[in-house]
Amino acid sequence: MNLIKPIAIAFLLPGLCQLSQAAPTTMFEESRSILRADTLSWDSPLPFDQEVKTGKLENGFQYFIRKNVEPKDRVTMYLATKVGSILESEQELGLAHFMEHMNFNGLKHFPKNELIDYLQRAGVRFGSDLNAYTGFDQTVYQLPIPSDDPELMKNGLQVLRDWAQDALLTDEEIDKERGVVLEEMRGGRGAQQRMRDQYLPVMLNNSLYSSRLPIGTEEVIKNFSYDVLRDFHEKWYRPDLQALIIVGDVDVEAMEAEVRRLFGDLKSPENPSERVKHKVSLLDKNQFIAVTDPEMTYTLGQISIKHPEEKVETVRDFRRSILKSVYNTMLNARLSELSQSANPPFIQANVGIGGFLGGLDAYTAFFVAKPNEFENGFKALVRELERVQKFGFTETEFGRAIVAIQKNNETAYIERDKKKSDSYVNRYLNFYLEDSPALSNEDSYKLYNQLLPTLTLKEVEVIGKEFYVDTNRDVIIMAPDKEKENLPDEQRVNRWFAEVEGEEIGAYEDKVSDLPLLAKEPQAGNVASEKDIQAIEAKELTLSNGVKVVLKPTTFKNDEILISAFSPGGTSLYEDSDYFSATQASSLVNSSGVGQLNTIELRKYMTGKNVNISPYINERAEGLSGYSDKEGLNTAFELIYGYFTEPRIEDDIFQSIVTRSLSMISNQESDPNFVFRKTILESLYNGSIRRVPISEDGIKQIDKERALAIYKERFADASDFVFTIVGSFTEEEIKPYLENYLAALPVSDREEQAKDLGLYEPEKGFEKVVRKGQEEKANVMLTYYGDYTYGEIENLNMNALERVLSIKLIERLREEESGVYGTGARSSTSKEPKNRYSFTVSFGTGVDRYESLVASALDEISKVKQNGPLASDLEKFKIEQKRQLELSLKENRFWMGQITGAYQREEDPTYINRYLEDLDKISVESVKEVANKYLKEDQLFKFILLPDEK
Prior knowledge:
The longest helix is centred in the middle third of the chain and has 25 residues, at 315-339. The protein is α+β, with helices and mostly antiparallel strands.
């Protein structure tokens, strides 16, 4: 189950909600003149989506039901409750979240763990599909299920009805779940949590929210009486605080009748408690706090200026929300540009006007400082904010931001009939819980088209002036302990604000290139031969220069085209002395410009284009991947041609990436998880630089000229490249681009294969204990490594083993022993350079329990080796695979992965058509055989992370 932490999201992703709130603003004459010619009334309430059936039962229970056939034969159902941790008393801390857990541990119609067992037998995955989360103000349960099975549909609705009010809450299950929640709590402990506990009262103005984190307290979770939880459930799980959201391939009228029948008898207490809407009050003063922790790996500064929440209720409000989005877009483009300078003042920075919490919005700006350069980073961020205050933005910046929003609006509208049910669910969920707009696809499209031409640059600049003020301003600093002496106090920060405000700051200069992307037009080739792959409705073309192209036109999206290419080779062909330059070459080229445009010019050139092409070089291959829509195909193929023939690594970009990379890793040895991962890799691969995380010395070995030379070598010969193109195109539409660009790529017909570097795990397993960290918690990784017999049936058996063991580990370690929050098995197999496998079981737990839980995990492995899996668990794996395949076959990304993977491994690209036949061949005996073949005691590697010795 997920724990939603709005504060963490607001802290790390400011501006995330810039389109969700708004309020009246000054209207300039330019806007008035446009409005006078328009019939749209800005004071009109925003229209509600009329394509969803809504209703309210006599008991107050609400519902939203919509038919949507993407995906076909599926329905997504959410139960939303306006019950979160903010409603808890001091004796109930953590019980809203605990109650969420209990709804999976015994319901009226599904006692004990029967709910999960029943749904797994129907192909529903626990965690991936079946899930829930608790926040400050809400708890939400989600259940996506097949809709082509009437019995399953009926029982699915019964699950939601039981969630609404019929949790059993037995003494036994409550006590078992205490341990699970305590382990979830333990897993969340660390540097971020310790610092959050200090800064949260400042961030939330010492409101009730600051002492109501959903996870609760250890004391309450361990000791609350059963009746306290039952009373909380009875008090708050009631129909007037609940809504059902159902979107999918269903009969709306029949579903509505069933909802009315099932949920109409939900009861409220005789004297229901008032559901108070809590607020975070403005203090009308500025606040400051600096917190440090020995395990923090970077220094972050945040400026947060709080304002009363601006609801989006009218057309005028919606228009204002777009103005905020334009402001955020333009300012962040400037910050991104600054971070790409040769000596960037910070590692990264971001600004956003958006929703906050408790009836507030916020103007939030944050930056990640370079080591020992907090003042420089702080002043650089504030300087950009002041530059906008004094000079505003340019018309060209404004034009690009508008074009970007227009493009997003057009793309969303084109794909409206392919929109997934989940997106509609979230639309109605936010409407119910947050009073957010629930516009129909048509209304949203029309509103943007009508409002975007009325926006003016002056209005956007006024938005900034209204929000970037010096009252209700918080400055929060988080840093490693070793930076403590370099951090400012409040007086010094205030002095920095004043110093920057007094500087003579110049206006921003918007540099745009008029040059075309490519210096010269490619010399076109042609299609030399064609081969149908009828079984998967694809075609393989060979171009005149030897390039292979596999085409699979689809109708899964209206305007989505995926492009991928690979060639064997990669960094394996280079000596260790060149490794760091080779492994960073493609990211340096990708971060720079291409053709005649530098990186900043290219970013501006790409505005309003739904196109992305990125080169890569990994250990065994090089290639490209990306996407486009039909309108952007010319640009996409220009980029492909440019990355082959006119790549570049700019000096500023090189210096920026090296500087920021050195800064980011400077404190990584303070992070227990990093030290654990590094130690594992060092011990498995004898410290090979190709396997362990890059070090400061490694970064300093990256040579700009050598990196570019290696990149050019890798892309000098296109004759052994295979391109795969999947999506909404016809062969006739795509062929001109193949001939004009791909057939024009340079070739030298070299013969190349990736090299076997001989980097394999030891033949015999061992145990490695790493001690790092303050918290009393243990992380365990049990991994088997070895040679493998790669093949279609063997791979399926390995996947089945992974799944059946994951089921058993959850049942044993979590449900029976209450020792972990999450656990599972994970298998990985590879064909090249050698057939190899790894099989890992991992979990986190208490220091006092890890040894017994390791024994339990190994016992479950032993049972599968001795007896094979339970037939019922194997059936769960099979139905899950069948149900997932039904969905995957309608996804462009699935087909891209299938086709590209088959060509890379030199396998049959049509195998997917035989997959279900092979799946039926998997048996208890075949899985048992694979378990005994690969899960051998002498090939077990035990890795344990424990806290520092006291």
